[in-house]
């Protein structure tokens, strides 16, 4: 091979490497700046709320000299920029301070309650995706029909009805009247002292240990709140699936596929949905992140011991370390999932790699 041909082959490789480096740089810059913005917002919220963290720890009747000494020990007498530096340094090292409510380090409390929220949001997202995608495809294929109208009404109700109201109505129907589900909570009190979780994910732990009676009890507790979250996820996913499918079904390659004599099933599921699946990855990922951060009301109604209920109880007891720590963790997860979905989108769709 001549030197000229070798040089021509090397140039595209350098161009691809340069484009990848630029994309990676933009990705890291977006991640760092977004996270710093999150830390800045939580820091200033902690300083402007009408709750004195020192008095929350010591109580309203603490002597003045004790309050001032603790205030100096916590660094609240320093300028704001120094407090912000100390705040960032503590957050990056995993130190969110101690919870006033539980007296434990906030990070330990979050590690204890976070699996419950992840388990609930994961099951809700699976329900929403497995039902929402087929409904969206059906609505797009039969545009303007009764099926399309029904799917759109289902999505509209999912967007409009407050989740706490629907949760209360569901408890009245499925627990109080029909007895199909268990009482609010995560596990029956009978199993609390006989079941030892390993990872904190009760469904996986009970199945791994072969305790199927515990698995059935946990499932009866989680199925109703997960179904409600899945319904709200379904409303968003079905609507976006319908929109993506309508766009794909109007493309020329669909007309060409039908002209070649391909079956309608293959055209819809093998061609249109395959191309619509690229942006759907982002939609499902953002829906999952939304359930992780937005399940506060659901956890409160169902007494689900997740991070949403933890933050709610902490806020009611003026435990700002726990509130801000939980907010930062949820915000970090949301940022991570958002950036990961963007990376997956660029990986699955070659057209966006050089943007």
Topology record:
Blueprint: H1 3-48, H2 53-58, H3 64-73, H4 80-92, H5 106-141, H6 146-160, H7 163-177, H8 189-192, H9 202-208, H10 212-249, H11 252-259, H12 264-294, H13 296-301, H14 307-316, H15 320-348
Order of helices and strands: HHHHHHHHHHHHHHH
**Terminal CA distance:** 33 Å
- The averaged pLDDT comes out at 82
Q: What is the CA-atom radius of gyration, in angstroms? A: 25 Å
What is the oligomeric state here?
single chain
Number of domains: 2
The first-level CATH class name of the largest domain: Mainly Alpha
Q: Would you give the CATH topology of the largest domain? A: MetI-like fold
Q: Give the number of DSSP strands.
A: 0
Name the beta content range: under 5%
Low-confidence stretches: none
Q: Outline, from the CA principal axes?
A: globular
User: Main β-sheet, in a few words?
Assistant: none
CATH architecture of the largest domain: Orthogonal Bundle
Question: Helix content range of the residues, please?
Answer: over 70%
Please give the count of helices: 15
Overall structural class, as computed from helix and strand content, comes to mainly alpha
CATH-level-4 superfamily name of the largest domain: MetI-like
Overview of the structural elements:
It is a multi-pass membrane protein. It holds the Pfam family BPD_transp_1. This is Dipeptide ABC transporter, permease protein. By secondary structure, the protein is mainly α. The chain has helices at 3-48, 53-58, 64-73, 80-92, 106-141, 146-160, 163-177, 189-192, 202-208, 212-249, 252-259, 264-294, 296-301, 307-316, 320-348. The chain has two domains: 24-92, no CATH class; 112-352, MetI-like fold (Orthogonal Bundle). The chain has 15 helices and no strands. The longest helix is centred in the first third of the chain and has 46 residues, at 3-48. The mean pLDDT is 82.
């Amino acid at each position: 091979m001549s030197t000229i041909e070798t040089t021509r082959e090397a140039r595209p490789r350098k161009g691809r490497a340069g484009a990848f480096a630029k994309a990676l740089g933009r990705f890291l810059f977006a991640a760092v700046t977004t996270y710093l913005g999150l830390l800045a917002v939580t820091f200033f919220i902690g300083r402007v709320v009408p709750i004195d963290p020192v008095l929350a720890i010591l109580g309203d009747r603490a002597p003045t000299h004790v309050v001032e000494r603790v205030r100096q020990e916590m660094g609240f007498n320093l300028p704001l920029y120094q407090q912000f530096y100390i705040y960032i340094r503590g957050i990056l090292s995993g130190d969110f301070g101690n919870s006033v409510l539980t007296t434990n380090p906030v990070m330990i409390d979050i590690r204890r309650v976070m699996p419950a929220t992840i388990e609930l949001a994961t099951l809700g997202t699976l329900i929403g995706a497995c039902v929402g995608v087929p409904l969206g495809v059906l609505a797009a294929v039969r545009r303007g029909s009764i099926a399309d109208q029904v799917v759109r009404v289902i999505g509209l109700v999912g967007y409009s009805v407050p989740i706490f109201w629907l949760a209360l109505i569901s408890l009245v129907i499925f627990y109080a009247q029909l007895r199909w589900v268990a009482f609010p909570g995560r596990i029956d009190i009978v199993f609390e002292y006989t079941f030892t979780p390993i990872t904190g994910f009760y469904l996986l732990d009970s199945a791994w240990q072969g305790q199927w009676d515990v698995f059935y009890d946990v499932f009866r507790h989680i199925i109703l709140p997960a179904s409600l979250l899945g319904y709200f996820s379904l409303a968003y996913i079905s609507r976006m699936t319908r929109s993506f499918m309508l766009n794909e079904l109007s493309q020329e390659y669909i007309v060409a596929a039908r002209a070649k004599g391909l079956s309608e099933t293959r055209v819809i599921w093998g061609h249109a949905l395959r191309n619509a699946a690229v942006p759907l990855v982002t939609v499902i990922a953002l829906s999952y992140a939304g359930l992780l951060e937005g399940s506060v009301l659901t956890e409160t109604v169902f007494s689900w011991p997740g991070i949403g209920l933890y933050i709610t109880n902490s806020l009611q007891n003026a435990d700002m370390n726990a509130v801000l720590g939980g907010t930062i963790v949820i915000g970090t997860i949301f940022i991570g999932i958002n950036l990961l979905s963007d990376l997956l989108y660029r990986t699955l769709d070659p057209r966006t790699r050089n943007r």
